[in-house]
Task: inverse folding
């Protein structure tokens, strides 16, 4: 049952980690352990808990292995307290990759976005060299590889979003490196029969961060809201977690491709005005809506895996309550409004 609001960070974590019936059914069919690379990041902990909870419900003999540098030690401690096995690994070190245990099922979440302007070399290494090494190491596995809708070109703001059959045209080094990640995984898949799914996620919302959160916080603070990128996509992170888990059953060689986001083409202006009506303060807009936007068509995902469990109207209410109540923030803006590919 979907609650009308989320009152605390503990409740948020529980909600993100709560497996659906479809998740439990998927886990019951899995053979082998599930290894999550990048498990210490924004989505990793809740995804690990979701799968671990589903395994307990099905009395599965298999394990969830959470792999990360764990630069925040408390993340590792909390996962371990939940009974999830954790492994420390710096994926930029090939020797540490080679020491990782093999697993039948791999979820590859690791990547770099923020800081691309300052250290583009690190972004390219993280997003291309690392996945090439990981794909080689897990060539006998099936692997969901997180990617992004940023690999697509900007499309007319009033038209349909890009679908999986549209040719990529990434703008800027971050997006280009993400396409590089896809290409090296595709190479290993074709050469060594790695079964993979390229999971092109567009703007997961967790209440502590995300496109809707960015807009809500700006409205509440009286900050300027740039309308140049006037439309966007968003999806509840719990639904993205569910799709990632169930995406293991869609892996193939050559890799399958899946756009993962909500069905709506969301207006920045209308969203800001809605939050303004809730907060009782006017939005401050700059610029006007441009002719193009970065939009993805998630029809294939919804056809294969079902509609998101949390609709936009509910997610928006959650965000409004969370932000107005002073809920925690990860202080990592999405930069969805950037049009020149700097991030």
Result:
């Amino acid at each position: 049952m979907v609650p009308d609001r989320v009152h605390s960070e503990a409740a948020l974590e529980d909600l993100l980690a709560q497996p659906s019936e479809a998740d439990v059914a998927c886990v019951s069919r899995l053979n082998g352990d599930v290894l999550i690379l990048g498990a210490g990041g924004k989505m990793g902990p809740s995804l690990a808990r979701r799968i671990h909870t589903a395994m307990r419900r099905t009395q599965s003999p298999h394990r969830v292995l959470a792999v990360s540098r764990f630069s925040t030690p408390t993340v590792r401690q909390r996962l371990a307290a939940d009974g999830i096995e954790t492994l420390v690994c710096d994926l930029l070190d090939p020797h540490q990759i080679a020491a990782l245990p093999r697993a039948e099922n791999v979820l590859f979440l690791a990547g770099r976005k923020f800081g691309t302007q300052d250290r583009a070399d690190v972004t390219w290494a993280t997003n291309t060299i690392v996945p090439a090494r990981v794909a080689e190491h897990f060539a006998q596995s099936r692997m969901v590889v997180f990617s992004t809708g940023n690999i697509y070109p900007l499309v007319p703001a009033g038209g349909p979003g890009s679908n999986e059959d549209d040719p990529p045209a990434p703008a800027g080094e971050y997006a280009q490196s993400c396409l590089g990640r896809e290409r090296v995984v595709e190479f290993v898949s074709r050469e060594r029969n790695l079964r993979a799914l390229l999971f092109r996620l567009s703007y997961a919302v967790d209440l502590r961060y995300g496109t809707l959160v960015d807009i809500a916080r700006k409205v509440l603070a009286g900050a300027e809201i740039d309308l140049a990128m006037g439309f966007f996509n968003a999806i509840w992170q719990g639904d993205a977690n569910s799709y990632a888990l169930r995406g293991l059953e869609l892996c193939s060689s050559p890799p399958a491709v899946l756009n993962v986001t909500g069905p709506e083409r969301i207006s920045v202006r209308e969203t800001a005005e809605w939050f303004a009506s809730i907060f009782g303060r006017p939005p401050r807009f700059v610029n006007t809506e441009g002719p193009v936007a970065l939009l993805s068509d998630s029809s294939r995902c919804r056809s294969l895996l079902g509609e998101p469990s949390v609709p936009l109207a509910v997610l928006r209410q959650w965000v409004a309550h969370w932000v107005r109540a002073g809920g925690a923030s990860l202080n990592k803006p999405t930069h969805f409004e950037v049009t020149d590919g700097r991030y």
User: Anything to note?
Assistant: The two ends are 37 Å apart (CA to CA). The chain is about 40% helix and 15% strand.
